[in-house]
């Protein structure tokens, strides 16, 4: 028991010092990987600003994923005031749906005292989430790692911990130990 407590204390110190890298491999059809499950230990009261880079916040289900992520930020212990979203603009028939959906989310966040800054890039490819407390999360599939539910009335439709996932990798690290080139 003492060894387990010592290891936990050591990991907490490593996290605090930013010398921590965690990699989570989400297997095909795995469950238990809601946004809350993945991000809760990196969201503290000091988090006031979040940057999301994800080129695929375009279609209805992707907009709902982003909305679900925003809901998590609003109800967590953090005091998020600004969310920056960098995504790509849908050039097809979904352009109007994307812009109206993001505007609705922006207004809804404003009603909760959160400002959403939208920016578009035609060359964005990588996916990344950064919190102003220094934590950075890279998800191979971005926010869109959940599979489509079997039906509107199946488990996992509302609770993402019960929703099967696509296979992806999540890398979590602190920016104290990242080198910008």
From TrEMBL:
Cite the MITD1 C-terminal phospholipase D-like domain residue spans from the record. 32-174
Q: InterPro entries per the record?
A: MIT_domain_contain_protein1, MITD1_C, MITD1_C_sf
The residue ranges crossing the membrane are: none
- Could you tell me which Gene3D superfamilies the record lists for this protein? MITD, C-terminal phospholipase D-like domain (3.30.870.30)
Its recorded name reads: MIT domain-containing protein 1 isoform X2
**Naturally occurring in which organism (per UniProt):** Odocoileus virginianus
Q: What is the lineage of its organism?
A: Eukaryota, Metazoa, Chordata, Craniata, Vertebrata
Gene of origin?
Answer: MITD1
């Amino acid at each position: 028991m003492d060894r387990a407590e010592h290891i936990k204390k050591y990991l907490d110190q490593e996290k605090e010092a930013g010398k921590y890298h965690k990699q989570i491999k989400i297997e095909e059809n795995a469950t238990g990987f809601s946004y809350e499950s993945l991000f809760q230990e990196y969201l503290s009261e000091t988090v006031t600003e979040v940057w999301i880079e994800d080129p695929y916040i375009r279609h209805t289900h992707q907009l709902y994923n982003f909305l679900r992520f925003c809901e998590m930020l609003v109800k967590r212990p953090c005091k998020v005031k600004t969310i920056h979203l960098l995504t790509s603009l849908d050039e097809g028939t979904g352009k109007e749906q994307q812009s109206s959906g993001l505007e609705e989310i922006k207004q809804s966040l404003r009603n909760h005292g959160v400002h959403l800054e939208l920016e578009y890039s035609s060359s964005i490819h990588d996916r990344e989430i950064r919190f102003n407390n220094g934590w950075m999360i890279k998800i191979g599939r971005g926010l869109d790692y959940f599979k489509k539910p079997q039906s509107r009335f199946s488990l996992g439709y509302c609770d993402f911990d019960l929703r099967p996932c696509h296979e992806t990798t999540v890398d979590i690290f602190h920016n104290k130990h990242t080198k910008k080139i």
